Task: inverse folding
């Protein structure tokens, strides 16, 4: 089976301006959302308490709220259904640092008249820990950006590195925009999902970059636009296959993975779409605008190849004993 | 050469696969022997706590115990001191007779880590910076040790107690099933088990209910409530006669009068001596037995008590007495701990999570396997074999490293599968390209691998870089995700690149002879 039967070159670069406009709209739209609506920090990052309950029958939300109103800490808690109408999640911003008392037990005691209830999960994160987790997460992202920048600059060229990181930032910001739009709680596992998106789209970008690097040495063309078109076209069936199958896999996770990984897989679905779009459309205009020169790069690669050949010849001579 | 060629690539894959099967079996079959992959608390249920150590309390109690020693020495040597007080983090007193200064100076020299300020006859004693740091350090190390001992005696399966960062302690208790169990475990950890024997200030005891804390402090006293009746208060001398650090043993016994559980404790020789001296000198007065800031009993001293043993009575339940005894035996917490983060997952939720994610994982794997086979024919089958090998080896390596599988870790496996498949997609697309250009099969396979290699390696390394950054700075689930991902990526390089190439090596001649690109590469070659 095959998708593209003929090796055709599509003119992706013709769509450079519209694609960048779409990207810009999504990007700045996301920034606008983040600035106005903001992120819904879950308890991992903001500190607070989360209690997950399960009833034998449909959960009586009003009764639960009434029961909680008696308790100082729980009276302002948000009580929402979680996944099914039997499961309830209770969230509030306070956290008790007293090791001896258990808010889960307190909740259970308050709820004893509302039906047969099981406490399935209690998460308490103190405000200090929340702040620390947020800081660490930000550090992780920044450090990985930095390291990736350096690696790509060494393996390719600084313009590639910059274009890659720009498209990474683009992807992450838009993914965060989607998280803000759909009001998904930002927790540690949400963060893991965002980082996965980062890894995935980076992977995509690098593979096409690699093809561009190769085309520069093999193609007869001199213009960067043409080389980009050739390379993106050549990797197109791979891009579609991989993104398509990844999307389907993530979709399966979303459908059957349960509520615990619902947010996670939703973010991945958004990320795969954005990541694919950006590696096909967004990363390359930047390469052009950064005034990437094919001739210069070809010369540089030629230099490298010459050096390598030289070294090989020397080695061969040495091995033959002719020095 | 018409025979099939078994190359080093295939051999490496086979060795890796055998290794994988052998070491992943304990995890898959849940047999007793061998190292198994451990499930995170989110998957098996249990209690996770991050505790903060209130280190300033350790310094306070160190100051108190220094005050106790000075007091004891002064009494013993008949040095007259006045205005003996414990301030925030210093001890103050004034000597009455300047001739006795050398005696007290010599005694103070015996205690390490003191910073002594003298203003005439007024002494102010503080801890040096190093001593404060050492005290904090010791308090944390001791808290880790103490909590571990207590949980070990509690009889739980594999509790983890580990220090984290500067002043935090991570406690993980898998297999806590009920809320009652959890409550008991938390009580056991929380119990400071700080035992103090303190003299009741008989002169002021009758003002106990009216006196304020500040007032009490000005007399060098402190007010503690009664353990059974919080309304009833005791005024005791702030400087303890003895504290729990001199305890050697604590056992539950039953009182002969009313068959109530009591706790018998014994003291080490120094403690026994101090206890004996004190009781000898204070016959007729009352001695309060204070545990964690509550007075359990305050018996009148009838005679000198030698031998260094005493008892705590005061309305314990049997279980409570048992837990207090464990806590006393394993030592007091020099500094109390508080909960910074707590996550508890019920066993039913854990089981549900694992079942759902397994279903999703199996569904995803099935989809990929079928897809690869349809799209790429035999090449897809090779890729599938490599994929299965990848998962098996991943499980084996994680089991050997004792790594923990978490829910995000499961997602990491899915992504690894994605990347491993991606590698094979890239390779197969490359081979098709060369075939389309009219190269022969052998060259196409060879060049396909060669050309795909740099893309795959670069992509994998950049992902690995990201993942390592995550591991270094991430916490909890992010870390679990990073571990699974990085091991998976490394293994996929072995299976997806080396392994599948091994299969092509084996079958190249056969493929060449058949010339059937549809069977081997999943598409019909245009003639």
Result:
């Amino acid at each position: 089976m095959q998708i593209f039967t003929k090796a055709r070159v599509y003119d992706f670069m013709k769509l450079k301006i519209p694609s960048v406009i779409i990207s810009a709209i999504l990007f700045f739209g996301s920034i606008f959302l983040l600035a106005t609506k903001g992120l819904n920090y879950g308890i991992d990052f903001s500190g607070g308490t989360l209690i997950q309950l399960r009833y034998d029958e449909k959960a009586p939300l009003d009764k639960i709220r009434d029961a909680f109103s008696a308790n100082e800490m729980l009276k302002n808690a948000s009580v929402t259904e979680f996944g099914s109408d039997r499961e309830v999640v209770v969230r509030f911003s306070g956290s008790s640092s007293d090791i001896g008392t258990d808010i889960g037990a307190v909740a259970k005691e308050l709820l004893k008249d509302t039906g047969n209830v099981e406490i399935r999960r209690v998460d308490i994160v103190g405000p200090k820990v929340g702040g620390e987790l947020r800081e660490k997460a930000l550090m992780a992202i920044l450090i990985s950006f930095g390291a990736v920048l350096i690696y790509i600059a060494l393996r390719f060229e600084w313009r590639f590195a910059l274009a890659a990181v720009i498209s990474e930032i683009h992807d992450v910001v838009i993914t965060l925009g989607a998280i803000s739009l759909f009001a998904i709680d930002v927790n540690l596992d949400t963060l893991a999902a965002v980082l996965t998106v980062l890894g995935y789209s980076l992977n995509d970008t690098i593979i096409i970059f690699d093809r561009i690097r190769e085309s520069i040495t093999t193609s007869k063309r001199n213009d960067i636009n043409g080389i980009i078109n050739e390379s993106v076209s050549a990797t197109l069936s791979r891009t579609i296959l991989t993104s398509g199958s990844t999307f389907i896999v993530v979709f399966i996770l979303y459908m059957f993975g349960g509520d615990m990984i619902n947010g996670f897989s939703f973010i991945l679905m958004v990320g795969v779409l954005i990541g694919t779009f950006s590696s096909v459309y967004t990363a390359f205009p930047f390469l052009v605008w950064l005034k990437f020169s094919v001739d210069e790069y070809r010369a540089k690669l030629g230099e490298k190849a010459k050096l390598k050949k030289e070294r090989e010849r020397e080695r061969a001579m040495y091995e033959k004993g002719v020095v | 050469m018409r025979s099939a060629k078994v190359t080093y690539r295939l051999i490496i894959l086979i060795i890796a696969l055998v290794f994988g099967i052998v070491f992943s079996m304990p995890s898959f079959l849940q047999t007793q022997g061998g190292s198994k992959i451990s499930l995170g608390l989110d998957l098996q249920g249990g209690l996770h706590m991050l505790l903060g150590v209130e280190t300033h309390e350790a310094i306070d109690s160190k100051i108190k115990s220094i005050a106790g020693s000075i007091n004891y020495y002064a009494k013993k040597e008949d040095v007259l001191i006045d205005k003996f007080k414990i301030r925030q983090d210093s001890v103050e007193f004034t000597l009455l007779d300047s001739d006795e200064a050398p005696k007290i100076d010599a005694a103070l020299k015996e205690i390490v880590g003191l910073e002594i300020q003298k203003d005439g006859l007024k002494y102010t004693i503080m801890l040096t910076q190093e001593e404060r740091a050492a005290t904090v350090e010791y308090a944390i190390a001791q808290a880790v040790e103490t909590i571990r001992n207590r949980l070990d005696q509690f009889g739980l399966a594999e509790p983890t107690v580990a220090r984290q960062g500067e002043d935090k302690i991570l406690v993980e208790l898998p297999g806590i099933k009920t809320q009652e169990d959890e409550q008991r475990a938390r009580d056991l950890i929380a119990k400071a088990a700080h035992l103090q024997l303190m003299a009741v200030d008989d002169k002021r005891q009758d003002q106990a209910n009216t006196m304020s804390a500040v007032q009490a402090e000005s007399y060098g006293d402190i007010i503690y409530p009664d353990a059974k009746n919080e309304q009833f208060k005791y005024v005791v001398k702030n400087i303890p006669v003895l504290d729990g650090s001199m305890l050697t043993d604590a056992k539950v016994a039953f009182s002969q009068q009313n068959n109530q559980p009591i706790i018998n404790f014994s003291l080490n020789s120094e403690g026994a001596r101090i206890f004996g001296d004190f009781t000898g000198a204070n016959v007729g007065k009352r001695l309060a037995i204070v545990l964690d800031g509550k007075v359990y009993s305050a018996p009148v001293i009838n005679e000198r008590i030698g031998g260094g043993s005493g008892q705590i009575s005061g309305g314990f339940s049997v279980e409570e007495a048992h837990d207090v005894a464990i806590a006393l035996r394993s030592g007091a917490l020099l500094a109390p701990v508080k909960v910074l983060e707590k996550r508890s997952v019920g066993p039913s939720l854990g089981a549900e999570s694992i079942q759902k994610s397994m279903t999703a994982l199996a569904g995803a794997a099935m989809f990929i396997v079928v897809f690869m086979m349809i799209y790429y024919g035999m090449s897809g089958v090779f890729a599938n074999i490599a994929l299965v090998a990848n998962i098996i080896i991943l499980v084996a390596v994680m089991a050997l490293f004792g790594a923990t599988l978490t829910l995000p870790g499961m997602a990491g496996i899915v992504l690894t599968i994605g990347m491993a498949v991606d590698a094979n997609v890239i390779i197969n697309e490359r081979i098709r390209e060369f075939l389309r250009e009219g190269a022969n099969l052998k060259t196409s396979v060879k060049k396909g691998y060669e050309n795909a290699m740099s893309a795959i390696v670069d992509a994998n390394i950049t992902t690995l870089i990201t993942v390592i950054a995550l591991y270094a700075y991430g916490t909890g689930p992010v870390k679990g995700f990073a571990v699974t991902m990085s091991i998976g990526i490394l293994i996929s390089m072995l299976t997806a690149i080396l392994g599948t190439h091994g299969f092509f090596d084996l079958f190249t001649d056969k493929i060449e002879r058949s010339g059937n690109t549809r069977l081997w590469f999943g598409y019909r070659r245009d003639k």
The radius of gyration of chain A is 26 Å. Chain A has two domains: 12-40+129-292, 48-125. Chain A has a mean pLDDT of 84.
